[in-house]
Amino acid sequence: MPKLTIIARVVDGLPLAASMEDDKYHRDLDVYKNQAKKIFKQLSSSSPGRLSIESGSEVFHYIIEGGVCYLVLTERAYPKRLAFNYLEELQKEFNLLYATEVDTATRPYAFIKFDSFIQKTKKLYMDTRAQRNVNKLNEDLADVHKIMMTNIHEVLGRGERLDNVMKHSGKLREGAREYAKQAKHLNTMMLFRKYGPVALGVSIVLLVLYWRFR
Predict the structure, then answer these.
(1) pTM over 0.85
(2) 69 and 138: one domain?
(3) What's a single GO BP term from this record (predicted)?
């Protein structure tokens, strides 16, 4: 189920709205709240539009739309499809209500009243066996599979910005292509060294025979 939901502005990480959790029963969320704040601080315009970040037994999922980041914390076993559907519903409603006010917001949680919609929507996604959620899980999952999964230590442990996650992924793919290219070149050179002298000798013999018997 969605345990913690925070909405923040990408340009400066300013929290705009969040789900109001009862600290008496959710004190274990403090660590994750701090991690969420660090994630927001590392966002930039080039950060991945959708990302899942593993953190112990939990996973952060977020989407970025219109300069706003919508983030939710769920258990690792919670379906990724439902987590992103949940965020998409929040994004549509929040954008409808506050899109023109996001840039001018100056204080944290300026749109805290949005919590009422968060709580109402969260209830719909609590039970993964509910028929509406089962139907969503049966939809095409191709787009969800394309969303990158990373680890909280990779994002925060070395102080990397989230946009660097995509850059590192691209470098790994480029490195793999370069390695394959070099391996192909080396194989060609090895074949030339192995069979080159033989091919040269045969060519010389054929050339001598040609000039002798023409």
Answers:
(1) no
(2) yes
(3) protein transport
